[in-house]
Amino acid sequence: MPLVLFWSFALLMLGFGAAVVINRNPVASALSLVVCFLGLSALFMLLNAFFIGVIQVLVYAGAVMVLFLFIIMLLDLRTEELRRINWLAFAGGVVVSISLLVQILAVIGTTKMARQSFPALASTGVDDVRGVGLALFQNYNLPFQVIGVLILVATVGVIVLSKRELR
Amino acid sequence: MITLGDYLTVSGILFVIGFAGVLLRRNILIIFMALELMLNAANLSLVAFSRFRLGTNGMPDYNAQVLVFFIITVAAAEVAVGLAIIVALFRTRHTTHVEDISALKF
Q1: Residue closest to B31 by CA, chosen among B93, B99, B88
Q2: What's the burial of A32, exposed, middle or buried (CB within 10 Å: 0-12/13-18/19+)?
Q3: Does A116 sit within 8 Å of B37, measured CB to CB?
Q4: Å from B33 to nearest chain A CA?
Q5: Which is deepest, A14, A33, B15, B26, by most CB within 10 Å?
Q6: B27 - beta bridge partners?
Q7: Percentage of chain A lying above the pLDDT 70 cut
């Protein structure tokens, strides 16, 4: 059963991920990205990372993609007109991507660790929020505070950038 | 049986999809979305390793999940700033096509 779930969600995610790149309409790309993130969140939950899965749906599929759709509508982007494609650059991009894929797959294929399955957990309860919270507030308290300052800086930066007159 | 390699393969393919999107597309918004795909591919492999390498108490290694949490937070801030820059760029240049924005090109 987990095998079927894993491959169905993985194929869903990869299919819609490819649709993000292939679609010519930016709105269709953004909506494909939402489905891709939902599939990814299901994969997180299959790995017993329920907190990260929920955060993925809330932050990415919720907040970030709404921001993307807002901007697409604000800029009033339509399906881009067909331009003359630089076939040399296109072929170069395809070749570089495929060679990267071959390289990644070769590394995974030659690693012994990659052929082992996942060990059983000590308890199958849904208490990973507690584990993440303990690690976050005990070992990573300072980075957590720094992240808060970073978000404040980003907020101020966005407001400054969105002003009519940049000076 | 699902192995660690299955998750790493899916993560690698997702990364390559995002990489190809950055290289092949010319719309700056799509390039931005492809960047998000690459960040998420990294997150998937981090969570897979967190589940693979159990801690001393037999639970997943939560350090990796804290790193994923930080990556998601920074990515959200990055998207906000990046989209604000794209809007400011669109106001002055009226384009989202990266080949039209070549003022700094040598």
Answers
A1: B99
A2: buried
A3: no
A4: 8
A5: A33
A6: B97
A7: 96
The ipTM estimated for the assembled molecules is 0.92
Residue A83: pLDDT over 90: no
Which DSSP helix (H) or strand (E) runs through A5?
helix A2-22
Of B15, B44, B34, B3, nearest to A104 by C-alpha is B15
Q: Look up residue B105 and give its two tokens.
A: 């090109």
Q: How far apart are CA A15 and CA A66, in angstroms?
A: 21
Tokens read off for A54: 């929920």
Measured distance CA(A60)–CA(B72) in Å, rounded? 8
Count CB atoms within 10 A of the CB of residue B23: 19
Say if A87 is an interface residue toward chain B (CB within 8 Å). no
Average pLDDT value for residue range B35-48: 94
Å between A133 CA and nearest CA of chain B: 8
Q: Does A135 touch chain B (CB under 8 A)?
A: yes
- Of the pLDDT bands very low, low, confident and very high (cuts 50, 70, 90), residue A136 is very high
Q: B13 pLDDT exceeds 80?
A: yes
From residue A102, alpha-carbon distances to A88, A89, A96, B48, B65 in Å are: 21, 20, 10, 21, 28
